[in-house]
Design brief:
The chain is α+β, with helices and mostly antiparallel strands and 147 residues long. It has one domain: Alpha-Beta Plaits (2-Layer Sandwich), CATH 3.30.70. The chain contains four helices and five strands, in the order βαββαββαα. Bound molecules: flavin mononucleotide. The site of flavin mononucleotide (FMN) has 15 residues, from helix 1, strand 3 and helix 2.
Length: 147
């Protein structure tokens, strides 16, 4: 099986997002675990950024469901690409609240000419923060953080 990862940004329904997250994340973890999907969901207080990894057969139908989900808007797919190994092995869906990521997310979301390099940099930046925190043992493992 060829592993792929996909990365998108969207705009959350700001006032309802905390309530939505409490139902989205536990269900997503169950589904993703069953389908061999791992990933990270970042909420910056306004936007969602999500990286998902797995087989294309599992990812594509999930992505179209997420894109059609009315709990967010402006779903903007940035890339889907093959990967050699998972970045979020063992995390059915890590969750983290990262207000400090907002500026970078807005820059990529608002640029009509968003290029692949910028998108990859943003995905790496979001993931790096998590790994550093996990390594230093602060805030626990992101995969266990509650929305
Ligand atoms: C920002 C966001 C991220 C989501 N991430 C996932 C996910 O990783 N896995 C998942 O199964 N559902 C996720 N969902 C929920 C799906 O959009 C959808 O509600 C779920 O797959 C159930 O589909 P159904 O309502 O058509 O049965 C997410 C929703 C939102 C708004």
């Amino acid at each position: 099986m060829v592993l792929h990862r996909t990365f998108y940004l969207s705009v959350a329904h700001e006032t309802d997002a905390p309530v939505h997250l409490r139902s989205i994340v536990p269900r997503a973890r169950e589904f993703n675990a069953r389908c061999g999907i791992s990933g990270l969901l970042v909420y910056d207080g306004v936007h969602f950024a999500q990286i998902l990894e797995g087989s294309l057969a599992a990812l594509l139908p999930l992505l179209s469901r997420i894109a059609a989900d009315r709990r967010h808007t402006r779903f903007t797919s940035l890339f889907t690409e093959p990967i050699a190994s998972r970045g979020f092995e063992g995390w059915a869906l890590g969750y983290t609240h990262r207000p400090q990521a907002r500026q970078d997310i807005v820059r990529v979301l608002d640029s009509p000419l968003t290029n692949y390099g910028e998108a990859v940099k943003l995905a790496r930046h979001l993931a790096d923060g998590i790994q550093i925190r996990t390594l230093h043992g602060r805030g626990g493992v992101a995969g266990e953080q509650q929305p």
